[in-house]
Design brief:
globular, single chain, 5 helices, alpha+beta, 146 residues, OB fold (Dihydrolipoamide Acetyltransferase, E2P)
Length: 146
């Protein structure tokens, strides 16, 4: 095969690989059926960078429960620090976009309302400066459990 033929075939190969990535991302997964299968590591899902729904599907929503150790209120962010998170370093934040609605739900004094209480935070866990966090944008992502 001549060099010019290979260069012309590269865009076709890239298109085929992208289509394969989209099909792979959309393929349903099944639960392992045997004990041996349950102990093997799951295969890595490949998602095309332009596949918005595939990327969103790969970002599961989780619920984290813990006791609030302290709350730091600043102009642009409210930080909720949980007890016993030295290993996980998990925390939650309320950014300015959700600040007013969340504060209103707690009479504008969230620190007083939740410090020392067990709370439930729901959202996508993301890494920020190497630490896992959930960004709270609405009051329904956050609740006092006890």
């Amino acid at each position: 095969m001549r060099r010019s033929t290979i260069i012309l075939a590269l865009p076709l190969l890239a298109t085929v690989l992208c289509a394969f990535a989209i099909v792979t991302a959309a393929a349903p997964t099944t639960a392992p059926t045997t004990q041996a299968a349950a102990t093997t590591a799951p295969s890595m899902m490949t998602i095309n960078a332009s596949d918005k729904s595939g990327i969103q599907a790969a970002m599961p929503t989780v619920m984290v429960v813990g006791v609030i150790d302290n709350v730091t209120v600043a102009d642009s962010v409210i930080t909720l620090n949980f007890k016993d998170t030295a290993d996980s370093q998990f925390y939650a934040v309320i950014l300015s976009s959700g600040r007013d609605s969340v504060l209103a739900a707690y009479n504008n004094d969230i620190a007083k309302a939740i410090t020392g209480k067990t709370v439930r935070v729901t959202g996508n866990v993301v890494l920020y400066r190497g630490r896992p966090e959930i960004i709270i944008n609405a009051p329904d992502q956050f609740a006092i459990v006890k």
